[in-house]
Design brief:
Elements: H1 3-10, H2 19-28, H3 33-47, H4 52-76, H5 80-92, H6 101-111, H7 117-129, E1 133-137, E2 140-143, H8 146-154
Antiparallel strand pairs: 1-2
Helix pairs in contact: 2-4, 3-4, 5-6
């Protein structure tokens, strides 16, 4: 049973969540079920009857604003090389090859000086320690929080990941 269906069984007939609204909020909060569940519970239990659709949308947008502030803070604390690694990871996704010659050239261009494999390895390890990326297999990495990819793609055009 889905969370909206479970909650709707406990709410008055005129005070229920629309599945499409819940799915839209799920996208807004970076597809993080624990965050969505908390928003749904808060709205259903604290805000009472009436404007559940509007409250759900507003709650998700407010939370996304806070998450994006957290992403901005985390981003500003990264070195230029760490930022370049994340940008390339977001751009390449499953095809991300962190140590290829083409990728090293992208890093070098981003930081303004030659970049060698050991520097990239150190940057990746620092990103892993900070829980920003994780390694699914040897040489395969992904963002811990896909919301950061959405935030990065939503930034001003000059700040977006390069398209290579």
């Amino acid at each position: 049973m889905t969370v909206p269906a479970w909650l709707n069984k406990r709410l008055a007939a005129d005070n229920r969540f629309e599945p499409a609204d819940v799915f839209a909020a799920f996208d807004v909060v970076g597809r993080r079920p624990e965050i969505l569940a908390q928003i749904l519970k808060d709205i259903a239990l604290d805000d009472g009857a009436g404007e559940l659709r509007k409250a759900l949308s507003t709650g998700a947008e407010t939370l996304r604003g806070r998450l994006w502030q957290d992403y901005e803070s985390a981003w500003s604390s990264l070195t230029p090389l760490q930022q370049a690694v994340i940008k390339r990871l977001v751009t390449e996704e499953a095809q991300f090859t962190p140590f290829s010659a083409a990728t090293l050239a992208v890093y070098s261009s981003a930081v303004g000086e030659p970049v060698e494999v050991p520097s990239v390895q150190a940057a990746i390890e620092a990103l892993r320690r900070d829980n920003l990326i994780w390694r699914s297999a040897r040489g395969q990495y992904a963002l811990e929080d896909q919301g950061m990819a959405e935030w990065l793609k939503g930034r001003r055009p000059a700040e977006r990941p390069e398209q290579t």
